[in-house]
Structure formats: structure tokens, C-alpha cells
């Protein structure tokens, strides 16, 4: 029977803290992007000065949002790796950053999963607590 190596609770919690911040920032950035697109295409959809202004704002914000999402993906991968979850969980973490507002709910759900896994799986800190 293969034994599973214990998780490092400190690394996992640190990784989750970074992911939590990234989730909030990504959620806000995506909401800003949606607002810009609404202004550009629905409010000022007709060609004109305002449409051009929102086009410029969109062309500046879109790459910034893309960078924020890439950071979110990297931090999600880091958390996934530290928690040693299966691939579907990684895909779910990435999906949380795609739909506006979902990253906020996904962060709360992920927090519960991290806490549940740290409570039910062996950690290095369990061994240290037992020795103390």
C-alpha cells in the first residue's frame, strides 16, 4: 500500500493566500472589462467620439486584464500543485476566472476545499505537533 507524502500546511496556506488575492483582483478586473465593453458596444455603439474613446480604453485595459488573468492562472496552478489535487480541480480553478463574479464564489469554495483537505489529510505540521 503506497503511502502519501504529507502536505506542507504552511506552503499550502501561503499559496492559498496568494490565490485569494489573485481571485479578488481578477474578479474586479473582469468586471471592469465587462463595464468597458458595455460602454463601448451598448451605450456608445454608434461611431463617434465617445465610441473611439471607449475603444481606446478597451485596447489599453484588455492586455492588462490578460496579464492579471495569467497571474491568476499561475497562482492557481501553484495552489493546485501544493495541494496535490487532480487535474479537474485545476481546470475548475481556471474556469472560476473566466465568468464575471464567479471568481468571488470560486475563491470561497476553494477556501473550503483547502480547509477540508488540510484537516483530513496528513501534513508535516501534524508530525511537528505530535512531537511537541
From TrEMBL:
<feature type="domain" description="DUF3817">
    <location>
        <begin position="17"/>
        <end position="110"/>
    </location>
</feature>
<dbReference type="Pfam" id="PF12823">
    <property type="entry name" value="DUF3817"/>
</dbReference>
<feature type="transmembrane region" description="Helical">
    <location>
        <begin position="21"/>
        <end position="43"/>
    </location>
</feature>
<keyword id="KW-1003">Cell membrane</keyword>
<feature type="transmembrane region" description="Helical">
    <location>
        <begin position="63"/>
        <end position="80"/>
    </location>
</feature>
<keyword id="KW-1133">Transmembrane helix</keyword>
<keyword id="KW-0812">Transmembrane</keyword>
<keyword id="KW-0472">Membrane</keyword>
<dbReference type="InterPro" id="IPR023845">
    <property type="entry name" value="DUF3817_TM"/>
</dbReference>
<protein>
    <submittedName>
        <fullName>DUF3817 domain-containing protein</fullName>
    </submittedName>
</protein>
<feature type="transmembrane region" description="Helical">
    <location>
        <begin position="87"/>
        <end position="106"/>
    </location>
</feature>
Amino acid at each position: 500500500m503506497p503511502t502519501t507524502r504529507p502536505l506542507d500546511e504552511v506552503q499550502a496556506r501561503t499559496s492559498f493566500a496568494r490565490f485569494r488575492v489573485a481571485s479578488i483582483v481578477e474578479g474586479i478586473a473582469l468586471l471592469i472589462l465587462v463595464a468597458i465593453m458595455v460602454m463601448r458596444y451598448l451605450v456608445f455603439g454608434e461611431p463617434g467620439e465617445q465610441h473611439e474613446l471607449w475603444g481606446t480604453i478597451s485596447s489599453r485595459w484588455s492586455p492588462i486584464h490578460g496579464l492579471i488573468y495569467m497571474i491568476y492562472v499561475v497562482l492557481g496552478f501553484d495552489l493546485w500543485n501544493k495541494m496535490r489535487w487532480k487535474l479537474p480541480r485545476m481546470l475548475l480553478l481556471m474556469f472560476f476566472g473566466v465568468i464575471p463574479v464567479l471568481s468571488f464564489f470560486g475563491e470561497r469554495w476553494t477556501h473550503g476545499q483547502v480547509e477540508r483537505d488540510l484537516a483530513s489529510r496528513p501534513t508535516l505540521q501534524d508530525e511537528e505537533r505530535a512531537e511537541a
